[in-house]
Amino acid sequence: MPSREGSPRDGPPTPDELISQIASARPATVADYMAAANAHYYATRDPLGAAGDFTTAPEISQMFGEMIGIWIADLWNRAGNPAFHYVELGPGRGTLAADALRVMARFGCAPQGIHLVETSPTLREAQRVRLPGAEHHDEVDALPDDAPMIIVANEFFDALPVHQYIRTSRGWRERLVERRDSALVPVAGEVPAEEAVPASLRDQPEGTIVETAPVSAAIMQRCAFRLVRQGGAMLAIDYGYSGPAAGDTLQAVKAHRFVDPFADPGEVDLTAHVDFAALADIAQGAGAAASALATQGDWLRRMGIEARLQSLIAAAPDRADELQGQRDRLVEPKAMGSLFKAMAFAAPGWPTPAGFTGDTA
Fold it and tell me: Quick one: which of 240, 165, 249 has its CA closest to 204?
């Protein structure tokens, strides 16, 4: 889950201000709408858990973060036990990092520093409780440059803003958000947008929607350049596709239910599916290696979640059903196992990250 940057003034716009801005000026792009709405949303609440709007994998089970800890410890060991920084982008409550670092310590894998890229004041407070001594940063560019970095991005890229383009009878147009009466609605803009649509997706029927994610691309590029310059690796886990693909993936969640993404700006979590092929292209363009794409379920199995489940059940037999249920939510295809994907990126000269099969992407 990502940190979001607020507006240039004292804080992000309130939902009422956001609607007023759209009503009084030109329609907003979907990307601008998504960025402003999520900035307010994350600045004003802890959205996680049963009392919030959604639950992420680290909050479901300690096994998720533990498998990431094993992944890091294995990579560190095969790299020759170098000094490194642990970096997490959008670390939620800090649960994943706490679980991963606990397992890493068992292998003698202690990072030189723990660095969290997060702008939400509410979530920063939760992270300080679980990760005392961790350093907070507003953006990737503020991270230290004196050692390799191992970067974790779980459900980070999905909530970064996307531009949407729709094929109309007049050609491709950017999708905008405007106010009609008391409602916000998506509309096709007037300016031709052919060049903004990937060439491989331009020949589509009328009504087709295509998404691009320049903010995600910029962050991935900065991370990849850091890896190439400093050494290290990165693990990204999110729901997405191998791309490029057409389709409207913008969605909103409130109280664990899908809702209209334009109905309540700033009060719902807005996300869009991640194009992992685009991330791989960016990383490789910067000089880093990209792994094959794996489903979350396959990756967790390769990292040893089945053995970890059995050890937890052996230690607490009365929790067997609960623990099995947690594993099933993370691994089974009908739950998170297939929808969520994993991809790793590595600096030149670093070992091939574990958990992936086949050639690099």
Answer: 165
Angle (CA) 285-290-295 rounded to 5° is 140
Indicate whether 298 belongs to any domain: yes
40 Cβ neighbours under 8 A, 6+ residues apart: 12, 13, 14, 15, 18, 265, 266
Residue 303: CB atoms within 10 Å? 22
Question: Quick check: is 4 in a domain?
Answer: no
Cβ neighbours for 223, distance < 8 A, ≥ 6 positions apart: 140, 151, 234, 283, 345
CB 233 within 8 A of CB 347: yes
Q: Decide if 265 is inside a domain.
A: yes
Q: Give the residue numbers spanning the domain of 200.
A: 15-346
**CATH no. for residue 230?**
3.40.50.12710
Cβ neighbours for 216, distance < 8 A, ≥ 6 positions apart: 157, 160, 162, 274, 278, 279
CA distance 336 to 342: 12
Tens place of pLDDT for every residue, the chain, 361 residues?
444 333 333 555 566 676 777 666 678 899 999 998 998 888 887 777 666 777 899 999 999 999 999 999 999 999 999 999 999 999 999 999 999 999 999 999 999 999 999 988 989 999 999 999 999 999 999 999 999 999 999 999 999 999 999 999 999 999 999 988 778 999 999 999 999 999 999 999 999 999 999 999 999 999 999 999 999 999 999 999 987 789 999 999 998 899 999 998 888 999 999 999 999 999 999 999 999 999 999 999 999 999 999 999 999 999 999 999 999 999 999 999 999 999 999 999 999 999 998 544 4
Tell whether pTM > 0.85: yes
Domain count, the chain: 1
Those residues whose C-beta lies under 8 Å from the C-beta of residue 261, and which sit 6 or more positions away, are 250, 251, 252, 268, 270
239, part of any domain: yes
Cα dihedral across residues 61, 66, 67, 69: positive or negative? positive
